[in-house]
Amino acid sequence: MVIAGHWIVGPGQSLPAFLTMEPLTTFFLFLIFLLVIWVLRCLNILREYERAVVFRLGRVLKKEKGPGIVLILWPIDKIIKVSLRVTTWEVPSQDVITRDNVSLKVNAVVYFRVVDAIKAIVEVESFRFAVEQAAQTGLRSVLGEVELDDLLSQREALNKKLQIILDEHTEPWGIKVSTVQLKQVDLPQEMQRAIAAQAEAERERRAKIIAAEGEFQAAAKLAEAAAVLNREPAAITLRYLQTLIEIGVEKNTTIVFPLPMDLLGGLGLKLSPTASVDAKG
After folding, report:
1. Extents of the domains making up the chain
2. In Å, how far are 5, 13, 16, 93 from 10, measured between CA atoms?
3. CATH superfamily of 87-187
4. pLDDT of 111 higher than 90
5. Would the pTM count as exceeding 0.90?
6. CB–CB of 139/96 below 8 Å?
7. Is 182 helix (H, G, I), strand (E, B) or coil?
8. Burial (0-12, 13-18, 19+ Cβ within 10 Å), 66
C-alpha cells in the first residue's frame, strides 16, 4: 500500500490522472475552460425581428446590432434585446364625457412597433408602458372634444386623428404608431332608449314625407290624364272598354253598362227650360 498525500493507493491501483499531470498542463486546461465560458457569454444569436442595444462601460454604442451572431466583450459590454415586431395592445375601457355631456365607456386597440431600438431604450424607461399611458390619455382627450353623433358616425376620422396624435408623442422614443381603432362604445341604457326613440321618430318623418310626395306625384299625373281626356273625348270610351275588360276577368255576377256623359248632358239641357217654366208658374 502506497500513501501519496491524502490518497491511499492499494496494490494494482494508480493515482488519478490529474495528480500525475504536470502543474503547467493543468493550468492551461483551466485557462481553456475559462476561455470557452467567456466566448459563450460573448456570443449572442438574434432572430430576424430582434435588434441589440449594446452598452460599453455604461455608454451606448452608436449603432444597433443584429440580426444573426452578435459578439460583445463580456463583462465590459451589456446587451439589451429589442423586438421590432408590431405590438397589439388593447386600451382598457375609459370613462369619457363627450362635448354634449354624454357619459360613456370607450375602449380601443393600438398597433405600434419599434423603429429605433436605441431611442426606445435610452430615451424612455419603459417604452411599452409609455405608449399605453399616452394612448389612454389621448383617447380621453380626443373623444372629449367631439359630440356623441360624431363619435358614432365618424369613427374613421377619429381613428386617424388619434393615430396622428400618438405618433407625434411617441416619435422621440423611436416608436411608430401604425393604427388606432375604436373597438367598442358602451352607452348608458337611458341614452340607448333616447337614441332608439329618435331613430323611430326620424323614420316616421321620412315615411310621411315619402307618402306626401307620392300623393303629390299622383295628383300631378291625374291632372295630366284629365287634360288628355279633355283634348280627346274618344279616349273616355276606350277607358270604359278597358274597365269592362278588367271587371269581366273576375268571376262575379255584376253587369256594368257604360252610360255616355253626353247623354246626361243632353238630358240636362232639355230639362232646364221646363224647370224654369215651372218656377215662373
Report:
1. 16-83, 87-187
2. 14, 6, 13, 80
3. Band 7 domain (3.30.479.30)
4. yes
5. no
6. yes
7. strand
8. buried
